[in-house]
Predict the 3D structure of the following.
Amino acid sequence: MGKRIGMEVSIAAAEAVKQANVDVISAYPITPQTHIVEHLSELVANGELDAEFFCVESEHSALSVCLGAAATGARTFTCTSSQGLVLMSEITYIASGLRLPMLMIISNRTISAPLSIWNDHSDVMSIRDCGWIQFFVENGQEVYDHVFVSYRLAEDRNVLFPVIINMDGFILSHVIEPIELIEQEKINQFLPPYQPLYQLHPDHPVTMGAFALPSIFAEAKKAQEEALLSSIPKITETWKAFGDMTGRYYNPVEIYKAEDADTLLVTMGCFGETASVAVDKMREGGKSVGLVKIRLWRPFPFDDLKKATIDAKQLVVIDRAISVGACGPVAAEVKAALYGKDQRPSVYNFVAGISGRDVTSSDFIKMVDKAEREMEEGNKEGYEIYGVRG
Amino acid sequence: MTENLNVFAVRTLTQKEYFAPGHRSCQGCAEALAVRLVAKALGRNVIIANATGCMEIVSSPFPYTSWKVPWFHVAFENTAAVASGIESALKVLMRKGRIPYKKIVTLAMGGDGGTADIGLQALSGALERGHNFIYICTDNEAYMNTGIQRSSSTPFGASTTTSPVGKVQMGQMTWKKNMPAIAAAHNIPYVATACPSYPIDLVQKVKKAANIEGPAYVHILSVCPTGWRSAPELSIKLGRLAVETGVFPLYEVERGQYRLSIDFPKLKPIKEYTKLQGRFRHLTDEMIEEIEKRIHKEYEQLRVKAGKGV
Amino acid sequence: MTKPESEWTWKELTVGNVILEPGNASQYRTGDWKTLKPILNKELCIHCGLCYIFCPDMAYNLNEEGYFIGDLFYCKGCGICAKECPTGAITMVLEEEEK
């Protein structure tokens, strides 16, 4: 058993990056990601982490530095939020297309306008289709654990994709939680030094980033997509190996009191913990309610999601992002997962907690009540922004 | 012809090529020639980060590559940042013993658009951080790859597809951005200008840049027959005329010290340069005079900096 | 020989579409772009190598006799070599239709 220490989640993330023996770190400060880079700077300044650290002149450059370093064979790290992610979005697509392993932690924050520094998932939804493996975590321990899971997975010769860990800004990034640290020897065993498949070096010259004519572009994209889809079993394997080492097992979709439930809340990120309290309260009140939490956002675990939800009567999907002009992005995916089934639950979608507005357990109860009422009245596929005045 | 370009000297250059034939540049592309000479100067122990642009497109249509050295293209505006990553990775991987220690040059390469416009921020960041790398701007004075649109490096008066000649406007109405001066303002150890019409000078400067610890910036004027609307066979001559008229002086800034590579006490009339190019065909004598006045003033300022002024 | 891109299946592509064969563009003929080709008059040639050093297409190679000869497989016919030759030893002539 490792030591259990109370620490800020951003600090735990930075400690994990140190323990992962990262070679090159490049980032640009943005609230609420700053505590991660500040702590990494301290670790490098104190000689506790032997890495090249660059606080560069923009997020676009931050990720570009990571691509250059990863292509040269280094284990690289960056982290950002909100506007920063949107600025670097161009390069996220390229990192995946070039199949360069690296890790980015996003302290999720909303996108302007109006300008706001507070949490929601709008930032990562803007690069939903960029081809990275994307996790959503629920608590500090999951952030810490997923740093090691992500590097091992990203660098697996059968995977070779960049990975994003999404953690809710402030609500998760700035809270102090008990974190069970893993002994360094165990990590070294779980995560040996990165051995690139191809690497920029004069001894074996390769050309990376060639351009494709229409006559080969579709084949290139097909290869990329097949590789990303087939990373799902690798992801589960990696979680299994990690669980065997630590006793903490993870799944693409987690369920809580869901097996026999008529109504299922579906959440992503740290909504999960609050929602589980709400489920307990509703269960005490005799309601048949359960919870489904999505941990793996890309590649989307359609099969697991289907399995977890197909027997319910109704899903109440809570999105923490708004897709202006459509419904919440998670709800859209959930509906797509269920579409092929004749017997399927109805899906009621709330957008809640955008820009960090508090969503308490009683709010989850209110949302379930509202959705059930609407369903009884025949409105089976409703969508609304929860708690909006007017 | 100058002392930097004599028959004997050409034969002293290595015959090895690191930029392979079969690339798809236009006829008479002096930018491809510049790249060829840069590659020749640096030899095999180099890693290149290339910005999106003509040289990226002509040299890497999958599954073909003209590159015999490791080469990496990511995007348009971030080449200096990509090179920063390459340089940092080499440093840390050698320090940690994951790759054997040896001198490997990191080269970043972009056109004038990728350097003076969209890539300026990333370049400034990389120069300020002091990475040990060379940045080469191959300047053909417009966005040639997308069809000859003006950049901030397009000279005054030049007609491009987005600075056309019309009833009220006579081509580009702004003056060429002075990129070498911007690079030099970062107080980096080495800045130079070069032109493939002076191949020995170009090769020597690139070699010098490679041997200097810290960032080096080399700005290479690259004649583009397609975009300049000039005859392909004139590409070398036009580069020479750019230098001889003072339009593109060859100089170095070594640790703040300016030095003219070739000095012309009397510059050739600028008309000799402009009359060979379709992009300047519309220029009136008044405009040419205005351009010449400014070019001469700037040349004198440069001479003063190089300790040759009056 | 590298297959042209239109013959590759997605399964054959390398991870990230990395090109593993350095300089394989040299298999690609750019010589058929030209209308004019360079002809060297050896009597006038002084072996200075300017044609070689100014060629943007790396078409010129030194032969055993010490002459730089343009490789018509690559030569795009720009005419720089003829223009820059200090003795006028190279002339550009219309390339006859082959086949």
Remarks:
- DSSP finds 13 helices and 16 strands in chain A.
- The domain at 4-246 of chain A is CATH 3.40.50.970 (Rossmann fold).
- Residues 82 and 92 of chain A are 14 Å apart (CA to CA).
- The two ends of chain A are 53 Å apart (CA to CA).
